[in-house]
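Let's practice the habit of predicting before peeking. Look at the sequence and jot down your guess about where helices and strands might fall. Then scroll down.
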Amino acid sequence: MATPKIRFYTYRGPFSNIIPVNVFEIINADLCSYCGFCTAVCPTKAVNYIFEEPDHPVITEDACVYCSLCSMVCPHVAMKKEMFIEPPVPKEKYLARTKIEALGKVAQDGGVTSSLIIAALEEGLIDAAFLVARDEYWRPVPIIAKTKEDVIKAAGSKYVYSPVNHLLEALAYTHPELNKVLAVGLPCQIRAIQRAREVGLRKFVSKVAYTISIMCSENWQWSKMLEMMKSAGVKPEEVVKKNIKAKFYFYLKDGRTVEYSLKDAAKFLIPACRHCPEFLSYYSDVTVGALGLIGWNAVLIMNDKGEELWKATVERGYVEYQPLPEDRWTKIVKFDRRKKRNALKFIAAFYGLTEEVEAIKALRKKAKEAK
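Done guessing? Here is the structure:
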């Protein structure tokens, strides 16, 4: 085993099934991608969501009662090694874009995620969706979306850590009227929901009827995004949209577009994204992304629940679609495999887990040869 860059006391790295007493070490080492679930389950608010502190959960050490609920739902604890080997295989693959006019004007790319949610609301498949809006400074604002207008308000990628899973507290304690919810998140956020299901925290997740994941290469803390914007010469209140298409693009209110290199953007990343293997979520019902597409989305239907969402959206005439071209799927798989390789490289160096990483590499090689 190589020497780790940081010595932990209760956190044994992403592969260990030993649950840390809490997530304090994960947060303090910048390994937290702020999915927000720990702030939902903590009974004493030793880890808490505070809007004015959007980078990570706020820690109050003296309040911790060592129940370990936060660690049980943390997506960076006990990662399954299978996630580092091969991407998940969807049931169906489409190229699609929204036909909802109001949504097309504000959508990130194809607007399919929002179209799926609007259809699910109108069909009565869900009572609400857990989404992320923003303020004028691009600070993330988790919202409970119950109407088409709410969904359109939250449209578009923020590219900052957004604690949407904090809203799961509402299912457990404060919103008894919600019986069927759709959760939208990045792979780490959906992974946290899956962890809660596996450890039996039913009151937080039993009413999550559907999940949609967004394809994810990386994301940034809000404060790091502000630093990036400053480096690019833009102010957050001037930005109306961000996008990544080989470069990072900032679209401004005055009509200008400012380009920023992804190499420079990577300098503002924290370790949390570097050990994550999921470009594609292993646990979502539907995965949506663009990956260079302009005005369209790649849509991956992962299971029967995903088929229900897709069918409702198609039958309402809310999307234009066609089969996903095979070269587009090949590109998606390439991105997923690259993220897995990079995660393993980081884990070996950061945690000193060289033996575990080499064993996974051997499994990756065997899986590739089997194909």
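How did you do? Residues 92-329 form one domain.
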